[in-house]
Task: inverse folding
């Protein structure tokens, strides 16, 4: 299955939030996204890494910048049993996605993106991949340079798109 | 944009690895996935949450169970400048993906999955979402129950597929 990269997509004007130190037991993700959904916060990306149940865990998500205050208020209302250690924000992130097919064994495809960004001294703030899409968050100021490096790395000629359905 | 859930996909016989306490600076993800790619380790999902540059960060990835030893040896060879705190494994995980379109403002769609798994007392080990796919890792023993709960939650009638290109 030769991976085929179709193109690059990006989105700006997102903020990212990380809720650190959440208990790692059933019902916690439900509680976090219930209060955010009830507050009508528009969420894009969600990532959580895996650790032993005995340890606390972090969840990162991105949202429209305008929803920041509402999200902050909603998370503060989480019941005590879902107490987290802290919340960290970054107001100015950009998401870049490599969109393709057949990327299932895609360590080579993902590696290419990580190589390109490292070449440019661009820090990868978060990663979320699937068989058909590799997404990273970078500082918004790095967006243009990151798109240029990724285009070269994958030998793409067209422009990146900010159409979320790409 | 009404979200439309097309179906459920799953994959078993994966192991998950978390490399904890990695430095959060450019070039680290490149180094980790270069040694894994050079060792011909077949990687599926990659997730990393976002934290301030001054802090260390965790990266979780899934791989074929057979590649575990090779991956372990490759990570041990990482140069000292990419020193991590520890590696944790889980031999028996299953991935469940909700596949759809128009899920960009999908906090409601993701919330439904989190609600369903919490109802069943199933722990969510990792999360990775995009506009068109919500994936979670659960303990392999929970796969059947998790698929049943997700089917009901989204009102789906067909079977889940283990075709990675779905
Ligand atoms: C942290 C959170 O994902 C938790 N493991 C849950 O199942 O809800
Ligand atoms: C942790 C890792 O992703 C690092 N931030 C990098 O850019 O490589």
Result:
């Amino acid at each position: 299955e030769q991976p085929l990269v179709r193109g690059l997509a990006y989105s700006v004007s997102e903020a990212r939030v990380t809720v650190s130190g959440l208990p790692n037991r059933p019902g916690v993700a439900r509680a976090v996204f219930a209060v955010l959904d009830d507050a009508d916060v528009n969420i894009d990306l969600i990532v959580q890494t895996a650790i032993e149940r005995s340890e606390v865990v972090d969840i990162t998500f991105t949202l429209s910048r305008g929803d920041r205050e509402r999200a902050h208020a909603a998370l503060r209302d989480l019941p005590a049993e879902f107490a987290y250690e802290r919340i960290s924000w970054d107001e100015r992130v950009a998401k870049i996605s490599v969109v393709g097919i057949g990327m299932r064994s895609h360590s080579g495809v993902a590696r290419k993106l990580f190589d390109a960004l490292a070449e440019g001294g661009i820090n990868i703030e978060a990663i979320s991949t699937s068989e058909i899409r590799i997404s990273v968050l970078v500082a918004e100021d790095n967006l243009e340079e990151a798109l240029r490096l990724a285009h070269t790395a994958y030998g793409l000629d067209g422009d990146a798109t900010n159409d979320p359905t790409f």
Remarks:
- The longest strand of chain B covers residues 4-22.
